[in-house]
Write a structure and sequence with these properties.
about 25% strand; seven-stranded mixed sheet; 17 strands; single chain; globular; alpha/beta; about 350 residues; 10 helices
Amino acid sequence: MGTMTAAVFHEHGDRDVIQLEQKPIPQPAADEARIRVVACALNWLDVGIRRGPQFGAVPLPLTTGVDVSGVIDAVGAKVMGWRVGDAVTFYSLVTCGDCEFCRVGEVTVCPQHQIIGEHINGGLAEYTIVPARNLIAKPKRLSHVETAALPVASMTAWHMLITVARLLAGETVFIPGAGGGVASMGIQIANHAGATVIASTSTREKMERARGLGADHVVNYRDADWVEQVIGLTGGRGVDVAQDLVGAATWSNSLRTLARNGRLVVCGSHSGKSFDLRIPQIYHRQLSILGANGGTYNELRRCLELADQGLLRPVIDRVLPLSEIQEGHRILEEHDHFGKVVIQVAEGA
């Protein structure tokens, strides 16, 4: 059936382990669809898996890529409701559907879950295979590049802020690292929810871009007193919610920004997995620390609907060809971006 170009690594390590290879074009099973990939955005997940996964082994060789937009070019015999030529993206979590968590809709903690692009070959290739039940129509008003910038970042931010932290209109939220994909989505989702948004980032240019996304206030985290600045912006009270994806480098200060009864919602630890925690501050100020893991199919659909209505904007730093996949990893690792780095695999509107 021919071959395709795919970004593959056979071992964990530095960026040079990723190589472009010719692989057989995959064939869909009866309940699967094959997508001709037009664009695939990078996530920190791609970097983390390449370096070495935190939560168990992944199959090698592997092609990562969880944020895909493209066109169906083949469907399995049992697939209903989708046909060749449909423009689609997909939900990247594949769950068992039968455990106690799946049965009540808490699919993000399914103990048997797999992620397309981590446990199953993903979208950094000319073609990829996905279960038909994971497909979602591409928003009509967005290009494939814009669509690829949305799935993981938007549903993760929604799950963190709206589902887990239960952010309410009139509350104040602190979002550190505004240049990151989830943070840039978090600013917009919190703004849409009617919250006051305080963000932090590192340069004047990034501060202006964060304001352009809807942040009411932005502080520079290179300022020695930035935590005091955040608290001062709340009249000395502190924020109701802090959204943190950075990890050990920011947890301590994110906790300091919280008001009494404040909630720290976390998803990510790429700056470190542990730090010294002052336990008394948790119970004296009655703080909550909440874990959030990805997002659900329906949360992703909601975010894509908002994007199709112009209420949620993809934030794209730059677009690179598949041949520059190693450069894309460098940009993420060196934090040399604001928003998503998108790999354009093929031409397409």
